[in-house]
Design goal:
single chain; 75 residues; 3 helices; 33% helix
């Protein structure tokens, strides 16, 4: 399993949770980490065009995410 861990602020985590509202894409760990399934996120991102939701790339910055990973873990 290929996991990319990314350190973010609590504010960024809350914004990700608000904007990625699909249980297939986002899960919360017991310790508060936000876990994103990358393949599901790519599909979700395509379907949210025209929405008010902000893609994760805009929240954490361009070039941070490695889409070859299976999961992003925001801690």
């Amino acid at each position: 399993m290929n996991i990319q861990e990314i350190a973010v602020s609590n504010r960024q985590k809350k914004k990700i949770q608000r904007d990625v509202n699909s249980e297939k894409v986002l899960q919360l760990d017991d310790n508060g980490d936000v876990i994103i399934h990358v393949a599901s996120y790519v599909h979700f991102k395509e379907s949210m065009k025209g929405n008010d939701a902000t893609p994760i790339e805009a929240i954490v910055g361009d070039g941070v995410l490695d889409f070859s990973a299976e999961y992003f873990v925001f801690s």
